[in-house]
Each structure stands twice: as C-alpha cells, then as structure tokens.
Amino acid sequence: MNWFLRIRGFKLYPAALGGLVWMGNTYVTSWLEFEHVAIAGMFLPLLLVCFEKALSGKEAFWWSLPVLGALSLHSGHLQINLYTGAVFLVYAAVRLGEEGKREHLLRFAGVGVLTLGLAAPTVLPFLELLGESQRAPLNLEANAASLWSIILSFFSPDLFGNPTKGFLFNRSQANLIYPEFACFVGMIPLIFALSATGKQARVWQAVAFFCVVAAAAPFGLSLPLLNRFIPGRILYFVVFCLAYLAAMGAAQAEENAGRARKVALGLGGTWLLLLGVIGYLLNNPQPLVDWWKAHPGGIKLPPLDSNPDQFVAAFRATYAWNLQLLLPLICCILVYVRPRAHHVLLGVTGFELVLFAMGFNTTVKAPTMLPSTPEIEVMEATSNRVASIECANYNTLTPYGLSLVNGYESLVYRRYARGWACSL
Question: Most buried among 41, 225, 238, 256, by the most CB within 10 A?
Fold first, then answer.
C-alpha cells in the first residue's frame, strides 16, 4: 500500500500512514485466525500499482493485471477476494473518470475477461456448487449491525466490548462473532480521513459513507449470489477508503492543519462525552444490569446465566482504565497540538493498532469459535471421505467436503491434492 500511495504522489509520511492503516486495521488483525483477509490485502495494492503504471503509459502492465487478478482469486477465500475485485473496479472506474481516458475501457474489459478465464478452475466449481453450500440465504437484516453502532466503532475497537476481556455487546440479531463488525483504523488516521478536502477526497468519503450505510442496510446483497454474504464484510471497502483518505488528509495537513485541528476538536469532544457515559455506568452499573435483564439478547458476554455480580465484574474489567479507550482522546489532543509531528503521530497510531492486535485472542482453535454442524460430523465419520487440517468447519461459500479439506483456501492446488489423496 505504501508503494501504491508513493506512486500516487504522496510523500513518505502520508504514504506510511496509509500503509500502516491498511496493514494494521482491526479488520485484518481480528481475522488472523484465518489468512484470507491478509492475503487479499496483499493483492489489492499490487493490482492498484499495476493499474497506475498501465494508466501512465507502460503497456506491459496491462498484461500483469489479469495474472494478478487470477492469482488473487486462486489464493484465498472467494468471498473476500470478490470484495477485493470490487474495490479495484470502483477505484479503476474513478481513476478512468478523473483522467478522461475512455479509450482504456475496452482494454479494461479485456483484463476482466482474461482474469475470469485464468481463474476458471476456482470460480466455475464455486458457482456450480454454490447452491449446495452449508449456508442458506441469509436474513440480511438480522446479520447486519445498526448504523450508529458501526459509526461509533470507528472511535475505538473496544467501545462495544471485547471478547478477550469477557464483555461484549451483541450487535446483530444473528449473534455473529466479533470480527464481523471490527473496522478500526486508529483515531489519528480517522481525523485526517475526515479532514481531507478536494474533489477526489469527497468521492472517496462518499464511497466510504455509502459502504457503511450498505453494511447496516444491506440492500445490495439481496441480488442473486450475494444473499449468502455477511453484510459487515462490506466494511472491507471502508478500510481501503480510510487508508487512502488518511494519506490525503495527512498530506494536506502538512500545508494547512486548520481543518484537521477542527475535526480533532470535534471528535475529541464527542469521545469525552462517551467516556463520561462509561464512567457513569462504572460507578452506577444498575441501569446497565436492568437493561441486560430486560434485553437478554443484547449482551453476548458474559452469558445470560451469569449473576449480576459476575456481569458487573466483566463490565468493569473491560471498561475501567482500558488504555484502548483512553488513546483516542490522547490522539485527538496530539493532532490538535502537534499536527505535523510525523514520527510521533505514526508511532502513536502504530501503538494503538498493535495494542488491539496483541490483546485480541488469535490463538483460539477454529472449531472452538465455529462449532461443527451435524452434516459435517456425518461426513467426518465417513472413512477416507474428507480430512480437516486444523481449520474451521464453517465455510460459507464452498460445498460440503471440499470446504473441510483446507479451511478457507481456494479449490485449487493443496485442496485438490489433499482431497485426491484422501479419496485413493
């Protein structure tokens, strides 16, 4: 991502900030049980680099795009890779519109055809067997989080609790796991992303806002083939937008930091109010306990059979003197006082993101987080039918059997080899 941003003309500091956001955001670090998000995050910047090179007149890079696109589709979980492709398509459409190079549209269409052709060994079995996948079409409203909770989660990853600390609000009716709605990029990048100005910034701010709204009200996912997707994963778009916008805002703040200071003041004041509410509940938790009893599905952890003392203890362990909750206020003060202290701002952003990554539990075995289903247990009990290699028994978009051979990897290479060996 740093390479891509440097090609786009950003200096070292703004590019480093955008790269740090792309690498360390909580959408990536909370999914480290599985490698597919991190792998997809590697391919997207490479695709963008090749596209920019091709757009600048280096013809050979047009041929690299279908190869990289196909490798991306072959390399990981198709759902995330399809989102990667969608982000790339949106970016390419915006850039072609900015440059006014309509003559490249035919080439771009050719890139798409070649990509799908090279990725056919993965994509065609996926489409053929989609109807037999483990997951039925979703109740999209039940699988979405509310708009206000998604927006507030950009302030801090622990605002609605953290499963590793024993307290967690349930943000969707479907009782989804924590990472579905984890999309925190750091308070300093958020300030710069919101303070970025100009036509290009407004376009990406609009895309980010549309994606947040779509995650809360997933109207687009009612289309065929998309009704098995988790709405919260649209936030993958938002991470890219915020990384790009953070670089823009940081570059603009080097010349005029007035807008960044105003945004920092507004976000700092809002966060101070939220800390005040948390402080009140820490000293007077009875209203929260009453709400918990009246809304048994509203709290995911601790479980409903806990007594009130256990509930209050879990709440205090999560919110009392939690550095993850204090850092956003410190970040707002830093941007207001020292908006051009590059090394300090980068260091604090890195610390804020690493603090979450180190604390979030990425060591829980996949079957513990994602229990098996009766159908899977029957298949696993069948001799020489299927093998599970330390992977989740929960794959939303691949068929029974193949979905168990190697977790979230694609249908090619190791999966085919392992499945063939088990059938002999």
Answer: 238
27 touches 353 (CB < 8 A) = no
DSSP 142-187: TTS--HHHHHHHTT-TTTTEEGGGTEEE--STT---GGGG-----H
Both 184 and 245 in a single domain?
yes
285 and 162 belong to one structural domain = yes
Counting Cα atoms < 13 Å in the Cβ hemisphere of 120 gives: 4
Alpha helices in 299-365, H assignment, sequence order: 308-319, 323-337, 342-359
- pTM (2 decimals)? 0.84
**214 & 237 share domain:** yes
Q: Give the model's pLDDT for residue 240.
A: 96
- CB within 8 Å of 178: residues ≥ 6 apart: 30, 162, 163, 168
Q: Does residue 176 fall inside a structural domain?
A: yes
**Backbone phi and psi for residue 372, each to the nearest 5 degrees, phi listed first:** -70, 165
Q: Tokens for 199, please give them.
A: 């036509």
Residue-wise pLDDT tens digits, 132-170: 555 556 677 777 888 999 999 999 999 999 888 888 898
Q: Domain of residue 377: give its range.
A: 367-422
Residue 373 lies in a domain: yes
Among candidates 199, 202, 177, 232, which has minimal Cα distance to 370? Answer: 177
For residue 243, pLDDT beyond 50: yes
Tokens of 44: 């997207």
* Helices 12-24 and 235-253, packing angle to 10 deg: 160
Token representation of residue 59: 């013809």
One-character DSSP codes across 240-306 = HHHHHHHHHHHHHHTT--HHHHHHHHHHHHHHHHHHHHHHHHHH--HHHHHHHHH-TTSEEES-TTS
Mean pLDDT of the residues in the chain: 82
Q: How far apart are the first and last CA of the chain?
A: 44
58 and 193 belong to one structural domain? no
Do 218 and 82 lie in one domain? The reply is no
Six-digit token pair at 158? Answer: 């622990």
**Cα–Cα dist 62/84, whole Å:** 18
Nearest to 151 by CA among 240, 235, 230: 235
Based on the fold, state whether residues 186 and 97 are members of the same structural domain: no
Q: Which of 78, 101, 134 marks a domain boundary?
A: 134
